[in-house]
């Protein structure tokens, strides 16, 4: 074999190898191709091992250098291809794992308060505008504040109107989840200076199965006024002023006789728009003398009125929600409507 034909076939083998390397789509196929063109079975290595038989020493040297150079070139080409393949794979992963931030640019919503929170805050605003101060009490209450001090001593029949959830703490039955916001009346009377003009919003609890109009956890806002010379007329006037301030001037209120142990006389109040239906909102009445006394106030000197109503019910009416349970399912399709 002449040295020229050796050098020719080396050039051809290298060209074929380089072309094959360029077709490698991933590291595995590249390794296979590299082995095929520079491994023991490859044309280049076959040429290299045949050189020993050449008698022309000068020609053998030339061919030897050529084959070594070809093998080196092939190594470099393979290494270069490997780097390119790795870079492409990394780029692909980066692209597929990248967060699509344009989604957040397009919809710049930051969420909003729940409709019960909206109603709660509006109620506070309206009452603060009427001169009331806001108070809050604990959700876990004593039996005394929730019942006894509100003129419902142990075994009073009205206690059974409140499906009470008790807490395992202290004497059995002494601690409970408040069934209404009225116990905050007792705390405010005991702690605040007179006269008192307070509203007390908060979460309350009753042992109830959820349905379209009941939830075991709901919200109330309580009102309490204690001053000298307060009469039922002040109560009716306050309810009416609140109704117009909160719902609008086309709304009116009415009181219907009712019974609560902690108020005497007691009433229920309804509101309605100019031509709408009457909607029952809550209870109210003149604070019972026993309750004033439990709050440390002399009923011979001071009189007062109180009212309480459900916040969830108001949000439900306002937004025409058919089922109270929808308000607490946290389904975004519901929540985003308001
Ligand atoms: N606490 C009563 C209830 O939950 C409502 C009420 C409050 C009635 C204040 C009269 C006075 O039903």
Structure notes:
Strands 1-4-5-9-8-7-6 form a seven-stranded mixed sheet, with helices on both faces. Strands 2-3 form a two-stranded antiparallel sheet. Helix 1 (3-23) runs antiparallel to helix 2 and helix 6 (115-129) crosses helix 11. The radius of gyration is 43 Å and the shape is rod-shaped. The model has no long low-confidence stretch (mean pLDDT 91). By secondary structure, the protein is α+β, with helices and mostly antiparallel strands. It contains twelve helices and nine strands. The termini are far apart. It has two domains: 3-97, no CATH class; 110-335, Bira Bifunctional Protein, Domain 2 (BirA Bifunctional Protein, domain 2, 2-Layer Sandwich). The chain has helices at 3-23, 27-38, 43-50, 57-97, 102-106, 115-129, 143-146, 183-191, 232-247, 289-294, 311-318, 332-335, and strands at residues 133-134, 140-142, 175-177, 196-205, 217-227, 252-260, 263-272, 279-287, 303-310. Phenylalanine binds next to strand 8 and strand 9.
What labels would you give this structure?
338 residues; alpha+beta; BirA Bifunctional Protein, domain 2; two-stranded antiparallel ribbon; 44% helix; binds phenylalanine
At the fold tier of CATH, the topology name of the largest domain is BirA Bifunctional Protein, domain 2
The CATH class label of the largest domain is Alpha Beta
Q: How many strand units?
A: 9
What is the rounded distance between the termini? 90 Å
Total helix count? Answer: 12
Q: What fraction, in percent, of the residue positions are helical?
A: 40-55%
Q: Beta-strand level of the residues, as a percent range?
A: 15-25%
User: Radius of gyration from the CA trace?
Assistant: 43 Å
Uncertain runs with pLDDT below 50, 5 residues or more? none
Chain-averaged pLDDT: 91
Listed once per kind, the bound small molecules are: phenylalanine
> How are the strands of the biggest sheet laid out side by side?
1-4-5-9-8-7-6
**Element string (H = helix, E = strand):** HHHHHHEEHEHEEHEEEHEHH
Which structural class matches the secondary elements? alpha+beta
Query: What is the name of the CATH superfamily of the largest domain?
Result: Bira Bifunctional Protein, Domain 2
């Amino acid at each position: 074999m002449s040295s020229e034909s050796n050098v020719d076939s080396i050039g051809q083998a290298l060209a074929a190898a380089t072309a094959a390397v360029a077709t490698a789509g991933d590291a595995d196929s590249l390794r296979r191709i590299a082995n095929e063109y520079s491994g023991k079975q490859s044309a280049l290595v076959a040429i290299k091992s045949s050189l020993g038989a050449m008698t022309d020493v000068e020609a053998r040297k030339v061919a030897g250098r050529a084959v070594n150079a070809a093998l080196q070139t092939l190594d470099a080409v393979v290494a270069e291809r490997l780097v390119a393949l790795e870079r492409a794979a990394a780029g692909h992963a980066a692209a597929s794992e990248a967060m699509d931030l344009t989604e957040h640019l397009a919809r710049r919503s930051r969420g909003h308060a729940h409709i019960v929170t909206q109603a709660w805050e509006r109620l506070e605003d309206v009452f603060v505008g009427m001169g009331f101060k806001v108070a809050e009490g604990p959700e876990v209450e004593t039996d005394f504040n929730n019942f006894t001090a509100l003129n419902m001593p142990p075994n009073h029949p009205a206690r059974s109107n409140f499906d009470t959830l008790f807490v395992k703490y202290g004497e059995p039955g002494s601690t409970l989840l408040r069934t209404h916001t009225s116990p905050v009346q007792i705390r405010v009377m005991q702690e605040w200076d007179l006269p008192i003009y307070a509203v007390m919003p908060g979460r309350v609890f009753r042992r109830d199965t959820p349905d379209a109009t009941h939830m075991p956890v709901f919200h109330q806002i309580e009102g309490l006024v204690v001053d000298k010379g307060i009469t039922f007329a002040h109560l009716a006037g306050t309810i009416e002023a609140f109704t117009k301030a909160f719902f609008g001037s086309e709304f009116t209120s009415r009181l219907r006789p009712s019974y609560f142990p902690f108020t005497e006389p007691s009433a229920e109040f309804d509101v309605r728009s100019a031509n709408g239906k009457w909607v029952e909102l809550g209870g109210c009445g003149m604070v019972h003398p026993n309750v004033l006394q439990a709050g440390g106030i002399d009923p011979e000197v001071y009189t007062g009125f109180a009212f309480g109503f459900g916040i969830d019910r108001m949000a439900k009416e306002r937004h025409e929600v058919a089922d109270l349970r929808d308000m607490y399912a946290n389904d975004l399709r519901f929540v985003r409507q308001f």
